[in-house]
Amino acid sequence: MKKLLLILLCLPLLFTTCKKEDDTYTTSGNSTSTWNCDGQGNCSDPGTGNGTYASLSACQNNCLAGGTTSWDCDGQGNCSDPGTGNGIYASQSACQSNCGVPGKTYVPDDFFEQALINLGYDNVLDDYVTTAMIETVTDLSVGILSVGIDDISDLTGIEDFIALISLGCEGNQLTSLDLSQNTALEFLYCEGNHLTSLDVSNNTALEWLRCGGNLLTTLNVNNNTALTWLDFSGNQLTSLNVTQNTTLFELDCYENELTSLDLSQNTALSTLMCWDNTNLNCIKVSDVSWANSTIDLYLDPQQYFSLSCP
Predict the structure, then answer these.
(1) Positive or negative: CA dihedral 83, 89, 90, 94
(2) SS (H, E, C) 277-297
(3) Contact 128, 108 (CB under 8 A)
(4) How buried is residue 73: exposed, middle or buried, by Cβ count under 10 Å (0-12/13-18/19+)?
(5) pLDDT in tens, 17-63
(6) What are the pLDDT digits (tens) for 69-91?
(7) Is residue 44 within 8 Å of 35, Cβ to Cβ?
(8) How far apart are CA 105 and CA 156, in angstroms?
(9) Which letter does DSSP use for residue 35 in this model?
């Protein structure tokens, strides 16, 4: 009788213990593998119904270092990335540039896009321009004198102006300029910016290149054999090879740091502006008499022509 009474007293406790064990088993038995929500293992969630987030996408969008929201990279919610260091792209602009929108050209610089709006190639300031509106444009002037804007610092989007023959972007804030896709370009006016480098090796049709008033220390125009006017005044070049530019009729190289200049192949030259190069003395030419009598000269007092220079 005592044994039966003891069993009856223990039954509630036994059932309570069993239920707790059942709950523990159920929870672990239904769990899914842990979500790696930032791609780096720094932010995770144990799975639907078992963690903070109801779905993997919710975890990816919200479980980010610093609480950054997901980038909507195409402006339509069709292409996104969860943020710097947590997704595929290192920055929002990289995400926007690589996601792309069909039929649209990405133009991240608001001042550049506003210039395009002013010119009638766009109508909404939203970082995108309809590609069909710009791919046949042959003449584009977004310089201070043309559109009254001088704050453009990024010409991303210019690559889709594939028919461009003339580009004016003078008087802005550009530090770099990628024109590798604009192979039809013949006239480039980019003076008065902050360019530290300029690659025109793909622009073999260039006839006029005006890049004065920048921060250039080197310039390679070996591929630009069609050049007739070259202005790189007001930079920091110590030398420049123009022996391949045999059709040059004007060379403006004043206010640089030139120490040598070979014009022996430039027999079509009619104007040479080369003052304020205090370390330049001898200028090599193929005919001294012709150079002195034919070319319009703007030189420093110490500069002279010779068939050979030290």
Answers:
(1) negative
(2) CCCCCEEECCCHHHHHHHCEE
(3) no
(4) buried
(5) 433 333 322 333 344 467 666 665 556 667 655 666 667 766 666 65
(6) 576 666 656 667 766 555 666 66
(7) yes
(8) 9
(9) E
